[in-house]
Amino acid sequence: MRYRRLALFGVLLFLLVVSPAAAQEPFSTQDMQMFINAIRRANEAEPLAWSPMLAEAAQDFAEELATREEDLNHEGADGSKPEDRVALAGYVAYPDGVRASESFSTSNAMEAMAFFLESDVHRNNMLLNIWREVGIGHAESEKWGEVWVVVFGAQPGVLPIFINQDAALSTEPRVRVRLSTEEAGWSEEVFTIPVEVRVAEPQQLNAAPWKPWQSEVELLLSPEPGQKVVIAEYRDAQGRTVQAQDTIFLLPLTQGGQAQATPRSASPTRAATSVAVSPAASVTRSTTVPPTTPTLALPTQTSTVPARRATVAPTRS
Question: Is residue 2 part of a domain?
Answer without folding.
Answer: no
